[in-house]
Specification:
The chain is α+β, with helices and mostly antiparallel strands. Helices cover 36% and strands 12% of the residues. It has a two-stranded parallel sheet with strand order 1-4. Strands 2-3 form a two-stranded antiparallel ribbon. The radius of gyration is 19 Å and the shape is globular. 14% of the residues are buried.
């Protein structure tokens, strides 16, 4: 831990999983670090990260052709991306879109960010401007970040506390962002 950094305090679930999987995680982290270093050396930059959040998606709906047969559809391009990359299959999600997006963007439980329910633009609420997002973290290590998606997680930040004037921060740490409402 570097100077000035605070130790991250995780929720109980993390510590249980760490006790059960810590050695395997350490080995996987080492292997992943080696693969990332090789890719960076080969291409001169870090690999692309494409994250697709599909609301109300059941396990296996994308990236698993055998399971897709049960659902009656095929996603060959997504399956290929999953096969050629890393397919993360375990993320704690919430029962609705906004909290799930907030959990992914911040790595925190949505209630800790005040975003435990679906957010709508007319509510003039959103993710606090001082929340750190995955886009900011990735930008600091050389990634260009873009976010295309639904509304609901914008940061409504106060810019002048004396007049309570404010503005929407659609970027959330991303270099480019586009939202559909």
């Amino acid at each position: 831990m570097g100077q000035g950094q605070q130790k991250i305090i995780h929720d109980a679930e993390y510590y249980i999983l760490e006790a059960q999987n810590g050695e395997r995680w350490a080995a996987e982290d080492k292997s992943l670090d080696e693969k990332l270093a090789a890719l960076r050396k080969k291409h001169g930059r870090p690999p692309n990260i494409v994250y697709i959040l599909w609301d109300d998606m059941t396990f296996g709906a994308a990236g698993f052709p055998a399971l897709q047969k049960n659902f009656g559809f095929k996603t060959p391009n997504l399956n290929r991306m999953a096969r050629e990359g890393i397919n993360f299959t375990r993320m704690y999600t919430e029962p609705s879109c906004t909290p799930t997006r907030v959990a992914f963007l911040t790595g925190r439980h949505p209630v800790r960010c005040g975003m435990g329910e679906v957010g709508m633009p007319h509510e003039m609420a959103g993710l606090r401007g001082d929340e750190v997002t995955i886009a900011e973290v990735l930008s600091e290590v050389g990634y260009n970040t873009v976010n295309y998606g639904d509304a609901g997680t914008e940061a409504f930040t106060f810019t002048d506390t004396s007049t309570h004037s404010s503005q929407w921060n659609l970027q959330l740490g991303f270099a480019k962002a586009w939202r559909k409402y």
